[in-house]
Automatic annotation (TrEMBL):
GO terms for biological process: acetyl-CoA biosynthetic process. The gene is ACSS1. This is Propionate--CoA ligase. One of its GO terms (cellular component) is mitochondrion. GO terms for molecular function: acetate-CoA ligase activity; ATP binding; propionate-CoA ligase activity. Pfam families: ACAS_N, AMP-binding, AMP-binding_C. The keyword Magnesium does not apply. Its EC number is 6.2.1.1, 6.2.1.17. Keywords: ATP-binding, Ligase, Nucleotide-binding.
Amino acid sequence: MWLPCGCTSKYVASSFARRTLASYLHVSGRSRCNVAAFMPEAAGLEGVSGRAALRELSVSNSESFWAAVARHRLCWSTPFHTVQDCDLSRGKIKWFEGGKLNVSVNCLDRHVHTCPERVALIWERDERGSEMKYTYGELLEMTCRLGNLLRRHGVKRGDCVTIYMPTCPLAVASMLACARIGAAHNVVFAGFSADALAERIRDAQSSTVITVNQGVRGGKVTELKKTVDTAMQSCPTVKQVFVAMRTDNPVTMTARDIAMEEYVFSYHDGDVFGCVADIGWITGHSYVVYGPLANGATTVLFESTPIYPDPGRYWDMVERLKINQFYGAPTAIRLLLKYGDQWVNKYDRSTLKTLGSVGEPINTEAWEWYHRVVGDGRCPVVDTWWQTETGGICIAPRPSDPDAEIVPGMAMRPFFGINPVLMDTEGEVLTSNNTSGALCMAQPWPGMARTIHNNHQRFIDTYFQPYPGYFFTGDGAYRSEEGYYQITGRLDDVINVSGHRIGTAEIEDVVNQCPAVAESAVVGYTHSIKGQGVYAFVVLKKGIDVQEADLSRQLNGMVSEKIAKYASPDFIQFAKRLPKTRSGKIMRRVLRKVVESDLEGLGDLSTLDDPAAVQEIIQGHEKLL
Ligand code: 6R9
């Protein structure tokens, strides 16, 4: 009996044989391998030409015909010794005895060798106009990952895996992954009921099921995972159910269920997770220590700085340690952007899969550079919003989702269990989209803070008193027409110029778009006429030589044009650097005090990364006045 290498699935084997024949019959002869062209020398059938003759030969000398087809259109790890040994009178069917091949290798690897960028799948999704393409390279990677996942969970050659999924790339990869590791697959139509599914699982004696949380068909959501849960009541053989996410809606997971992705960074076993945060920052706690270790990940401890011994340090490290996920702060990205692309391009960053940003709004220019230069335009950038108080990521894009649209500079979507709301100044929930307000959380979640050590009253006053019944984050956010969130900064950083409320981050974003500017910080100050005026601190990129007055005019023009005249800075102070915390956040509180000339009120400076920066800022301010 013909069995592909490592594969005991009759379904896989026979369907591939059918495909092979089918594709042969439809070969055009120009772009694909032409059977007529290879047949004669391959099978000693010189002189055969034309379809009729070929068809005649395929019947009269079927053994030679099929031997030629099999040898020329498939890759065998062990060649067959006997083409066929069949006897219909006894129901004995044996083809290609002694031969071994792997169907997934034939479907994927050999094409990836020659044309990895060729599109293998075009997924026409239920949502019209949102089709997605997957190359052979991507499909192979997805397949290998799934194969490894199944193996690690004990699926072995000869097992039968039940796949209960809608028609989607992950379902294809699941089939190929089974074939790859020698497991049979039992694909059950996703429209079947729990009983029909259970019967097929029992028939196949599957111990493993792969499904998705929900299906989407004809605009309707179907509860596939719930159907599996019901089927499980009469399927005692099933030990594990892998659950992928087709939609955003979480489902109840039982001890038997295994989530198929980690969600924000798409971390998979074997990856090297490189969060370059200091462990003194919450980001280090959650994403250098506890998160990675609790998930059995390999985590990088970065002791150095992004520019020591030179500005290529991060990317040199990515190359040497083969880092797959890189997670850092916008401040470092802006710093490195100043030094130019050459420091990035020097190093091999092909292991990188996901780039993360945390700590501050990431301005458009930094986002684009991170994506285009660091990630070579192929790695999703996840702008993750969260706080010490939230314990872990609350709002972030999820590239592993099928609906993985990512908008530069937007934290995008709430994570599982997170229910954000925007409040107006009266404390009313804003229900519409395309609106801005104070970001609050309407529901608790396990990772959130429980108290402030030794000061529970302060905890209540800070987080729960401003909007009773809600957790108040202190940040402002904008919700787009599509329902995506964009963090606009701390609400303390909103200034009111002549009655116009504007987030300082918005002005900074425009200023940072000037090619000469590395980064900026905007604060408000008391203005006798406008209520508040706009004061911008600007750091230039390395090697920029411009007249400050000219550049100031240019920046004012940009802000007037892109936001409004009232937002245009009254003062622009050029500085060598900005005062920052060790975690890279600009200390706007300090800048505000400097601008108000309230040096007595500078407050606690112990978290400053480099106290000398404050002295420089004070001197620069005095010169400007
Ligand atoms: C993880 C962390 C929290 C504050 C938070 C917000 C700002 C964090 C952000 C962001 C815009 C992002 N913040 N991530 N702003 N976009 N992706 O930074 O914790 O040090 O407690 O700071 O940082 O203002 O409220 P923490």
